[in-house]
Amino acid sequence: AQSVTQLGSHVSVSEGALVLLRCNYSSSVPPYLFWYVQYPNQGLQLLLKYTSAATLVKGINGFEAEFKKSETSFHLTKPSAHMRDAAEYFCAVSDSNYQLIWGAGTKLIIKP
Amino acid sequence: DVKVTQSSRYLVKRTGEKVFLECVQDMDHENMFWYRQDPGLGLRLIYFSYDVKMKEKGDIPEGYSVSREKKERFSLILESASTNQTSMYLCASNHPRDRQQFFGPGTRLTVL
């Protein structure tokens, strides 16, 4: 069965520092992988998705993620954090029934 | 601009009341989903529907029912609300061949 693990329920970085949010998955089929962002009191918005094309995926707001099959990872990065990046981030994998299996989420805190 | 809308952003109900949460999408999507979101637990699937009048139980269907009489509308029903159903409820939709899900803004339900 597919599963997703996000390491760290909270990640704190200084403004201007590198953002790294970790996601590991298990999947019995070639995975489709997603990162979504949720700003306070809002729904989820797609940041980026991996659909078996390029392994380095660029998303909105300067975020990108790299699919590493050998490590079963899909970590999210951004070179320089902004205050507006403060939000909760969810990693998800699509299972064989086309449903999404979700990680528990990581809250990104930006220190001024 | 594609849209998923939910009938209420905030709702306060009393224990034992019947509660209706409505979701409408304008993208002609076949699939629609209801999730609940609780801190540290990510998104948990309550029910989904892959066609009008069709429904499937998700991971936590107990205490909930759903209705899909029209393609664009998917309703979540709490027959007798309880305090442990206090949560954020998120509706989503997608096309069967597109694994990306599109989300509404969420309804924060408080049951007193």
Summarize the entry for a quick read.
The complex is a heterodimer of chains A (112) and B (112). Chain A has 112 residues and is mainly beta.
Descriptive report:
The complex is a heterodimer of chains A (112) and B (112). The mean pLDDT of chain A is 92. Chain A is mainly beta. Chain A starts with a strand and ends with a strand. Chain A has strands at residues 3-7, 10-14, 19-26, 32-38, 44-50, 56-58, 64-68, 73-78, 87-94, 100-102, 106-111. In chain A, strands 2, 4, 5, 9, 10 and 11 form a six-stranded mixed sheet that branches. In chain A, strands 1-3-8-7-6 form a five-stranded antiparallel sheet, with no helix packed on it. Chain B is mainly β. Chain B has no helices and eleven strands. In chain B, strands 2, 4, 5, 6, 9, 10 and 11 form a seven-stranded mixed sheet that branches. In chain B, strand 9 and strand 10 form a beta hairpin.
Descriptive keywords:
heterodimer; A: 112 residues; mainly beta; 6-stranded mixed sheet; 5-stranded antiparallel sheet; globular; B: 112 residues; 7-stranded mixed sheet; 4-stranded antiparallel sheet
Tell me what portion of residues of chain A adopts beta-strand conformation: over 45%
Major β-sheet annotation of chain A? 6 strands, mixed
Q: Which segments of chain B are poorly predicted (pLDDT under 50) over 5 or more consecutive residues?
A: none
What is the number of beta strands of chain A? 11
Termini Cα gap of chain B: 37 Å
Mean pLDDT of chain B: 94
What is the 3D form of chain A?
globular
Order of helices and strands of chain A: EEEEEEEEEEE
Compute the gyration radius of chain A: what is it? 13 Å
Strand-pairing-aware structural class of chain A: mainly beta
Poorly predicted tracts of residues of chain A: none
